[in-house]
Amino acid sequence: MSLNNSSNVFLDSTPSNSNRFQVNVINESHESSAAVDNNTDPPHYEETSFGDETQNRFRISFRPGNQECYDNFLQNGETAKTDASFHAYDSHTNTYYLQTFGHNTVDAVPKIEYYRNTGSISGPKVNRPSLLEIHEQLAKNVAVAPGSADRVANGDGMPGDEEVENKEEEDKAGVVKFGWVKGVLVRCMLNIWGVMLFIRLSWIVGEAGIGLGVLIILLSTMVTSITGLSTSAIATNGFVRGGGAYYLISRSLGPEFGGSIGLIFAFANAVAVAMYVVGFAETVVDLLKESNSMMVDPTNDIRIIGSITVVILLGISVAGMEWEAKAQVILLVILLIAIANFFIGTVIPSNNEKKSRGFFNYQASIFAENFGPSFTKGEGFFSVFAIFFPAATGILAGANISGDLEDPQDAIPRGTMLAIFITTVAYIGVAICVGACVVRDATGSMNDTIISGMNCNGSAACGLGYDFSRCRHEPCQYGLMNNFQVMSMVSGFGPLITAGIFSATLSSALASLVSAPKVFQALCKDNIYKALQFFAKGYGKNNEPLRGYILTFVIAMAFILIAELNTIAPIISNFFLASYALINFSCFHASYAKSPGWRPAYGIYNMWVSLFGAVLCCAVMFVINWWAAVITYVIEFFLYIYVTYKKPDVNWGSSTQALSYVSALDNALELTTVEDHVKNFRPQCIVLTGGPMTRPALLDITHAFTKNSGLCICCEVFVGPRKLCVKEMNSGMAKKQAWLIKNKIKAFYAAVAADCFRDGVRSLLQASGLGRMKPNTLVIGYKKNWRKAPLTEIENYVGIIHDAFDFEIGVVIVRISQGFDISQVLQVQDELEKLEQERLALEATIKDNECEEGSGGIRGLFKKASQLNITKPTPKKDSSMSTIQSMHVGEFNQKLVEASTQFKKKQGKGTIDVWWLFDDGGLTLLIPYILTLRKKWKDCKLRIYVGGKINRIEEEKIAMASLLSKFRIKFADIHIIGDINIKPNKESWKVFEEMIEPYRLHESCKDLTTAEKLKRETPWKITDAELEAVKEKSYRQVRLNELLQEHSRAANLIVLSLPVARKGSISDWLYMAWLEILTKNLPPVLLVRGNHKNVLTFYS
């Protein structure tokens, strides 16, 4: 059927295809449909559906010329169909054709909500359907909520999105956010234009000349411009929250660098408030001096005026960011008027008074004379540069309030770079103008004019009719090099320059007063310094850091009352420069790490330029003040060490992580180009622990000889239905790796899902590791319950030993008396913790309801209890578990708990007995040697036991001592055992025979037919023929246990050569009996068998 274009006809009766129909997609936007040619037949696209193929599918034709039918489907942008009539799988309705996809699917279309972090302040995080939900069979009992199913089923959203979005809009109401002009440009310009512009720039031009003065300005601008580019690149590489320089550095380089620089940057801003306020107070005090209106004395007047000023500024800041922004705009207007006033003054004809003070308007001769440097005693290029450079700082004023910007990614680059450009032009303009109008020295006396007949000294002032030659012999008060108020003199109206000075100091103080709490709050929120968590709290819609304001106020007041900031000023400048250096280094580091996540939208940057900027900042720190630079580095280093030691639990995807990965990858690849050498051999182990927390003792002993020297992989095999196993495996991967990290075990966790245990281990043996970092040793626990275990478990257990030897991997079997598995203990702990939590929750609920009266209170209690999911414990089917629940963990199998921690404890003075019976390449000797290097085992001495001939004991002892000396392995004693091959005593042999009795076939006692039948039915049993063929080997295992009982019963650890079962010759049960009788009633035993390749060498 096809859809007619008419508004009153929907379906036509003409069949198109009885089984398959097509959807003709013309244009999804009817607004733009008029541009489509009506006479052109559009292409037809076959619609793909996940529905039943037997369902009929319809062909829809929609012609752009007629919109009535389509428009009837929409009501205010929503489908006309009501929620109550919608079905999740209704694909043949009007709604079906108006979704993003024309079929039912839980697949979601790309949305920003899926990519947000949890707890994002910019909006809610929504979880997209998992791969499992899409991949697995669709559940038949899907409950679809009315009004949301149409969006979910067609990939257009998640239930509750609309409500969340509405709540988000409500939360945003009343929040003040700034654009790039008011938020960044204005702040940066005010912070960069400081007092230096009005009272020091003229002196800098006088000392360095116009040429070098402009060079100083450009050099300072180069530092700030590179930093601005780096800031822009970092700020546009993802969403930027509040915190300014701290946020940018910490998210790029990690918490260690960010935490260290964040604290000193916040402190620097707090002290900068005092610096700017004192600068303002000094100017006011100078005015009071001129009018003889001093209150007390200059120092105390500065303190009084400074204290009042900082209180007023605090009031403006606490009133809210909107008021602070308005104040900044007013101050900028005043500052711009003051600058314009100066330029206007340069073209107003000078009078005699101003000429006597060195101002002659624009003169080429003055420009030429002032172009070169004229440094006074003690001054030079770098000293003048050090004085000017702080005037170029302040570029982070906008970035510091990044959390209050509407679009930080757009505002920070645009506002910061434009502010740097405008202020640089203004600095250069003022420097050139003042250098072209005012001479370096002037007397200020109108009588110092040149009388006709006098010889001119050749100076520019001389050519203009004034003789200032006496300034060469005695100090003068006027001119570029002597008068700091040159700009007031040159300007059209002097008081406006004073207003400009007020504006510059107050605006910088206000910006710092806002920046310090914002940066400090962001630092405290990240909980890097736990003691400062108190200052993380924000208030109001704008999350204002009121506590941070108070702290900044206290710091500023303290330094204002000191009123001596000349010493602290260089340190503050260096703090800011250290921040600039780290921002530049962050940009370089992120680029160098080549992480795919480094995709800054602002592309005008270069990694090597950023690195040059970082080096330049460090150099400028020493140029300004070397001892202040040293202090800055020491403080930053101390904070870095502190944060590194504390290891804050944060993960920001820093470039440090990215570079670590790249470095590890490069090193792993580089290792593959080098052949393995015996000198560099180290045990690299696969440990079959299951979950690492379930067999801690097995992991501890393995970690003891792999820590800091070899690879250790804790492996778990999930056996069972694949779907359930994979789900369980995936859900526990991160948790178990986190357990290893928490317990400071340097190991990896790996898991596989397999049909049987042996297949899983075989996969791990083949695929684990990377390049040269592949396992060469398999470590397993001894199967203590082998006599009660099912046949398949024994076959799998012995089979993995055979598999390891097939893959030329060494094997270590560890046995302790109590066994390794403590999963039952962990289960008890979990049960008790849950019961304790429920008890505490119930007590809290009861306490809350004690004050309530009547039945209403009781009902409230039961309601709360149901919300807390507190239920009466139901008896378990397993009676043992019901017993366990009533027991304390300490009372449940205390020996097993103690045994699980025995390798965590420091081993006292004792011995590690090494029974090196067979040469396996040296692994049996290397592992105990490595153990003696560990702190826990260093008090244990090695005793070596080897087999030998009874008549050559001394010779073989000397030979073994010589070999060990060449291997440089220290030992306490060597024992040559000459009676290994004698028969064991009857009692021991009887124990062995009783052990294997349940698994013997005894075919020799039966007739041939019966014997053959038994062999077919129970091929795993030990035959008489097999037992007779390996009787000598069985004797040896029993005899070795007797010798071990005799010599090593008191040892801390026994390391023993593992007997090898030849495939096809030794049955699984006989092999297990060998291992059992060999290690029975002994201290902890390591049965070791290397892969028979050298792991020891005496060659250098």
UniProtKB/TrEMBL annotation:
Residues 31-52 are annotated as: Disordered. It catalyses: K(+)(out) + 2 chloride(out) + Na(+)(out) = K(+)(in) + 2 chloride(in) + Na(+)(in). One of its GO terms (molecular function) is sodium:potassium:chloride symporter activity. It comes from the Eukaryota. Residues 183-686 form the Amino acid permease/ SLC12A domain. It is found in: Cell membrane. Residues 695-1100 form the SLC12A transporter C-terminal domain. Residues 825-852 form a coiled coil. InterPro entries: AA-permease/SLC12A_dom (IPR004841), AA_permease_N (IPR013612), SLC12_C (IPR018491), Slc12a1 (IPR002445), SLC12A1/SLC12A2 (IPR002443), SLC12A_fam (IPR004842). Keywords: Cell membrane, Chloride, Coiled coil, Glycoprotein, Ion transport, Membrane, Phosphoprotein, Potassium, Potassium transport, Sodium, Sodium transport, Symport, Transmembrane, Transmembrane helix, Transport. GO terms for biological process: cell volume homeostasis; chloride ion homeostasis; potassium ion homeostasis; potassium ion import across plasma membrane; sodium ion homeostasis. It is a multi-pass membrane protein. Belongs to the SLC12A transporter family. This is Solute carrier family 12 member 1 isoform X2. The lineage of its organism: Eukaryota, Metazoa, Chordata, Craniata, Vertebrata.
